[in-house]
Amino acid sequence: MTLLGHSIPDPGIVGDGPRAVPPATPAGGTKDLLAISDVSCSQIFRLFRIARELKATPRPGPASQWLSGLTLGLLFEKPSTRTRVSFEAGMHQLGGQALFLPSDTIQLSRGESLGDTALVLSRYLDGLVIRTFEQAKLEEWARHATIPVINGLTDLCHPCQALADLFTLMEVKGSFADDAFEGLKLAYVGDGNNVANSLIEAGAKVGMHVAIGCPPQYQPDPGILERSREEAGRTGATIEIVHDPAVAAENADALYTDVWTSMGQEYEQIERLKALAPYQLNERLLHRAKPTAIALHCLPAHRGEEITAAVLDGPQSVVLQQAENRLHVQKAILTEWLGRP
Ligand code: CP
Ligand code: NVA
């Protein structure tokens, strides 16, 4: 290819896209982060070590140029506060930049194919965070894109959230050792949704006890349960599904809940409110857990529905620390998946 009479290499022909250095995928890791199944237990601990280092490093600091010259796209089909802003701020703090691409503002909304969009964006960007509905659609993006694709939430799972949640649990418990989760019990009460699914998968990887208290009609995904139980057999984790929230909460180190009506389920709201009412995270339920237990919620929360204000804003709640940790853990993810140029 020539430009103004000079012969210049076309990086596109060799499929490298615009970057000078190929993405440094984590050793033994996958191109994409679509679910917790894409990371091993040792990679999780490696991410936590990087996140801890980044959290402790004043800004601007040595990490301020790690992703210099790199651009992250955020292609979102659903609203977001934390995921969007923490990825955007994280990218800036690492010297790169982020582009927010709401799906209704790009040609995708006028019928351009997913495949064409993924291939074109791969020529401009160094990574893509996608928030969408079906996991299969996220997987299709990842198949077409030649750059790393990171799950920013699907109907099935929310892996970045679960990683930040486990990091928060480690921080609160004060142990970053490889056996930090052994003997810990995380109880999740409410809807067996995307957040619950990723917590189950992550807990199984790190050897934790995970108890889910949910109604029979709102159980976690059977495929995720099956692969997590297999994983648990190797790591010493236990995955328990019960329908009595008090049984789930018994002696827990952490009590977690999420909204009863996730994005895209608004048409089911009335029946969900009814079925999930006995699963509210309130002070009575918190008393079933250990006195030192923490209360977690991925946010946004509905005070008076899935969680009471007394718990969410109470002394055992660590929800703001949890939300902040999205930033630190995702910065670690970006350095691992987008690489350091
Ligand atoms: N917890 C979470 O993912 O929040 P947002 O929907 O605001 O991104
Ligand atoms: N389960 C919620 C999580 C929001 C962060 C949803 O999918 O809407």
Secondary-structure map with pairings?
Layout: E1 2-3, E2 6-7, H1 41-56, E3 71-76, H2 82-93, E4 97-102, H3 114-124, E5 127-131, H4 135-144, E6 149-151, H5 159-173, E7 185-189, H6 194-206, E8 209-213, H7 222-235, E9 238-242, H8 245-249, E10 254-257, H9 269-276, H10 283-286, E11 294-297, H11 309-312, H12 319-338
Parallel strand pairs: 3-4, 3-5, 5-6, 7-8, 7-10, 8-9, 10-11
Antiparallel strand pairs: 1-2
Helix pairs in contact: 1-12, 2-12, 3-4, 5-6, 5-12, 6-7
The structure holds phosphoric acid mono(formamide)ester and norvaline.
Overview of the structural elements:
With 341 residues, this protein is of the alpha/beta class. Helix content is 39%, strand content 14%. The protein is built from twelve helices and eleven strands. The protein has helices spanning 41-56, 82-93, 114-124, 135-144, 159-173, 194-206, 222-235, 245-249, 269-276, 283-286, 309-312, 319-338; strands at residues 2-3, 6-7, 71-76, 97-102, 127-131, 149-151, 185-189, 209-213, 238-242, 254-257, 294-297. The model is unreliable at 1-23 (pLDDT under 50). Bound molecules: phosphoric acid mono(formamide)ester and norvaline. Norvaline binds at residues 153, 193-195, 258-259, 262-263, 298.
